[in-house]
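[Automated response] Your request has been received and processed.

Submitted sequence:
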Amino acid sequence: MTDQVLSVKAGYKKRNLHYALICMVLALLTLSLMCFELIYGKTVYTPAQIINAIKDTTGKAEGYFTIVTLRLPRTIIGALAGIAFGMAGNTFQKLLRNPLASPDIIGVTSGASVAAVFGILILGLSGSIVSIMAVVSGIIVACVLFFLSKGRGFSNGRLILIGIGAQAFLNGLISWMLLKASEYDVPTALRWLSGSLNGVKIEGAGLLAVVVICCSVCILLLTRHLQVLRLGDDFAVTLGAAPNMVRIALILLALLLTAFATSISGPIASVAFLSGPIADRLTGGGKDNMLSSAFVGSILVLAADIAGQYAFSVRYPVGVITGILGAPYLLYLLLRMNKKG
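Generated structure:
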């Protein structure tokens, strides 16, 4: 009996060590991509020039405008948005026990997008007010979806189906607004809808960083409760957990991450959808992989942004590249689920 216990403990320690090693590698890869974004471009700067430009308060350092005004906000917001989308998507997928249950599949990002497009095209707004509208709209749509899916008791399948239907309706509404809008306003809305880091401001990075750090820490603290919740509500209640409270808290935290990231960078396609499954492949399915999925999301956004800027003759927004990556996986997932019945 003692040998069996020691074997289980050794296996548990080995899995934890493997998970920590994978997270360290992913973190280093994220930092490497951030450094590459700051260094490489039409003009290549040395690390010393970048540090001097960031430390400079007069704005006279060599490359100050390119580094501090253009590259630094793009890099920071890209990394933070990737963390937000990656962790939010993985939270939804693990909580609802369905790989389709990511914010960009069940209508949450479309809820934020419809308000932003309405503000840009109909009201003629721009800047922070559009971001605020996107956050509020995303949260409201998610609350409506949760309320409709509750019925006599919460149903994961009902939430996913209602969310997919709501996404189709909201995307149709966005298309209608684009058709009715002035042709001069449409490019701005399309640029936002494509999920782009072009033109992001460093001012948006501060608020996004606070939201990402606070929500991520809270989700990590609730991970143990999520593991119990995945065994079923009856089992969770037996162990002293409060399924509804944990579920509502996790959904709200994931919504805040999604809504704030979408409000600043636009709905970057497929990052929330892909991050969790990739993290599961890298670390194994025995954990909830919140931290690893956050790093994977950041890597996806930064790598896609680099590819969109330099890999083709035409520059593409980051959301176009991630969307191309996500489409084949969605088809594969649907075929596999259909085959399993």
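Summary generated for your ticket: The two ends are 41 Å apart (CA to CA). The chain has one domain: 2-103+197-340.
If you did not submit this request, please reply to this message.
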